[in-house]
Amino acid sequence: MAGEWGYNLQNLIFDINEVPRGTMPNNVKSLQIILNVEIHAKEYQEEDICNPIIIRERNGIKEDYSFSLKIWGLSNGQKVVAHWHLDYDSKKNNEYIHPDFHLTFGGNGMKEEDDDENSVFGKALILPSPRLFCPPMDAILGIDFVLRNFVKKNITEEIANISQYKVAVRDAQKCLWRPYMLSIAQHWCKFLNCQNYKMEDSLLSKRYIPFLMD
Questions:
Q1: Which pTM was predicted?
Q2: CA 153, 66, 177: angle at the middle one, nearest 5?
Q3: Alpha carbon separation from 37 to 3, 54, 64, 68, 192 (Å, rounded)
Q4: pLDDT over 50 (residue 183)
């Protein structure tokens, strides 16, 4: 369809012969990484700020968004596994806070066909990678991070509505997150009035996200 693009890539395999330092178990000598990606998106104008991802069912076929990495190696002859998946979930009725896009470790990808949840723990592969960029946090943002990720949404929303709490978190976000986000936005900022912001260091976005492409 005009104005849209998409693909479904499954089981792209990377064989990694040098294991990152700090991997546990420490006797894993090599890794295999399996990448799966399904994406459907709409095209947009440069000045548009939008979510281009499309989720729908068309002609009886569901077009979805999924991104996962399954990583495995051998420890004393036993398969050990790590699994990362980037979810797109915009539903409002989740029990816990769900950013629309969120990267999660674990899940069903950790299990083999005959495994149950209790048998997975001894087969977990713990890696120092990936190292994901993240805005800085102080104590206030750290408390908010814990509450929003480990406490049910109905409780966190009650806390977030306390005026003193709301002001404290908002001020901390403005202090630490605003310059972080604007420095990244500046990398692409060729529209609207973004150039009016004064960048203390034009390379700051590259320091926050080293793999940004010019």
A1: 0.74
A2: 50
A3: 20, 14, 10, 7, 32
A4: yes
